[in-house]
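Anyone able to model this chain together with KE4?
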Amino acid sequence: MSYTYSNSTLAFNRAQQRIPGGVNSPVRAFKSVGGTPIFMKAGKGTYLTDIDDQSYIDLINSWGPMILGHSHPQVVEAVRKQALQLFSSGTPSELESEMAEQIHAMVPTAELIRLVNSGTEACMSAIRLARGYTGRHKFIKFAGNYHGHADCFLVKAGSGLATFDIEKVPGVTPGVGQDTLIAQYNNLDQVKELVALHPDEIAAIILEPIAGNMGCIPPTSGFLEGLRSVCDEHGIVLIFDEVMTGFRVSAGGAQELYGVEADLCTYGKIIGGGMPIGAFAGKRKIMEHIAPLGSVYQAGTLSGNPLAVTAGRETLRILQENPAFYDQLDQNGQQLKTDLLAIFSEKGMPVSINQVGSMISVHFTEHSVNHYDDSAVCNHDMFKEYFHHMLASGIYLPPSSYESWFFNIQLGDQEIDHILHSTKMFKS
Ligand code: KE4
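re: yes, here you go
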């Protein structure tokens, strides 16, 4: 079957008439891989169907949320029932308490949880909270980490900013950027140097405990533990941005996987089951500073929205009831890594593959990839060719070499075989 994209091409031309760049989020625009963004109309299990009625094995899964697969019957039924009850009231609902209790059951360090509407909102609120709690202004983030599009994060960020190589984002003022300190991921010495340079000025260190916005990059041994010690020694709030890794790499996320506790953690994606949602959570002594309990203001019209909470709560419930899912996801991830490495080696193509559970990325380089600078010097043109080869083979990779791939629990042997076979055929 040869894939054609005529209806997507027409749809993209139409979209560009009224939507900036024809997309509502830049990474969808295929800018770094070229070609026309594919317009999808349906999803089932591990497959997506585009508006040319062509199906794809989905290795993005909405950038993370769809860990159970698309249109999971129990999630669909729960949302259908809730929709017949109440879309939104702007009042408290017991659904929100059920969700908060579900998150706490899976992440014990989440003593208090505030629901918001996106990962960006979760991360920006966590930074404001850390600043309000400590009375300090500055925070440390890591080059290539992406915490959403709040001004203070748009400094050496990953994801779409790395994809587009946007160093300085117009509109982010020097006043905002001056309190954002940048260190190299997996480089504890640089963190210690910044802390020594700014005594008693740093409110927080925020990071992706497993990076997924410069490709997938796991923490090197001792990195997370070292950050924990630095924060304990200097009264700095340690924030794990688990918008991607939360409930993806284990039921308790990266905190559980690596046994390192964060003071605050942020969530999104999976906790909404595909609906718009985010959350920030953590130690009661810090979270109590959030309004209306404390004076750090944060709010949202649709925070705790009944439909989004229902989709997320059902997703988390199924994950909690099926802990074996995480072993299966990691086994599939390890098999993909091992077999892809062997195939590229036979083809004489140097690649580095990073994988944690169902997060994986192929970097076209002969070197290991442990931080943004490593990721930036990979062969992005080769990724571009690989992306389109796989797309034409019915496999939908993230349209950027700066993004982690995500697969869901419905990915089976047949799909894995097709991914491996298609890779064997690449440039052959
Ligand atoms: P949202 O505001 O997009 O819900 O979440 C921001 C965010 C925060 N933290 C991490 C670790 C994230 O990965 C994200 C968002 N991830 C990107 C993909 N790498 C979302 C895709 C997009 O921007 O369209």
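The radius of gyration is 21 Å.
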